[in-house]
Amino acid sequence: MIRLAISVEGKTEEEFVKKSLTPHLRRSNVYATPVLIGRARGRAKSGGNVTIDRLAKEMRHLRRSFDAVTSLVDFYGFRDKSRRLPNDLVRVIRNRIGQSDERSVFPYVQLHEFEGLLFSNVQAFRRISPGSSIKELRSIRSKFGTPEDINDHPETTPSKRIKSLIPHYQKTLHGPLIALEIGLDTIRSECPRFDAWLGWLEALGEPETQPAA
Predict the structure, then answer these.
(1) I need a surface site. Which of 4, 57, 122, 143 has the fewest CB within 10 A?
(2) Pairwise CA distance, residues 39 & 82, whole Å
């Protein structure tokens, strides 16, 4: 069993790992443990306060106790992303960690918010919302190539779009439950970046291929 630490920025991501990723990855011989980043620990509300140095320091520390380490943080929530693209952030974080082994260390930055994944199947929102909101959510989804592309302005991030249509939406409560109802297979089919990351996580449980003599 591969022991995997997933450095997460908030309670929503922590619950998503517990409810969806950990049970799924056990089938690949990988045991995933979510670990809240630094100051997020012990706070009811957290997230959106991630820096490159903070995440690199956290992952470097976790690597000492786990077989592999990754992250689940929102691109939108980075305080110091400046003009960097998500892949640029990943390269910088890996350099700060000082770990070249891509098999055991993989900084992952979600585009653009966790809530983007929930647009993979907006029908799942029926558990907390009437049909009129579902129609609006479906309209939003239709305007973007993938759910991961939804974030054209700070005031129209995925979570704010959802909250404007469903005022009683609670990120930490409803987000992981809706994701669970959607299912990882559907999320993967709609979100290529997430799919590639999950494929990397699954591959951790596979034996390393030895070079031919």
Answers:
(1) 143
(2) 22
Q: Which two tokens stand for residue 134?
A: 């579902």
Q: Which long-range contacts (CB under 8 A, 24 or more apart) does 149-152 make?
A: 149/111, 149/116, 150/112, 150/116, 150/119, 151/76, 151/111, 151/112, 151/113, 151/116
Best CA proximity match to 105, nearest among 180, 5, 199 = 5
Q: Over the chain, what is the mean pLDDT?
A: 89
End-to-end CA distance of the chain: 28
> Among 72, 73, 67, which Cα is nearest to 104's?
67
Angle at 101 between CA 96 and CA 104, to 5 degrees: 100
Structure tokens at 212: 């031919």
Give me the residue label for tokens 């699954």: 202
Indicate the pLDDT class of residue 99, thresholds 50, 70 and 90: low
Q: What is the pLDDT of residues 146-198, one digit of tens each?
A: 999 998 787 889 999 999 999 999 999 999 999 999 999 999 999 999 999 99
Q: Which amino acid is at 72?
A: L
d(CA 193, CA 208) in angstroms, rounded, equals 24
Where exactly are the structural domains of the chain?
A: 2-113+188-203, 114-182
Position 72 pLDDT exceeds 80:
yes
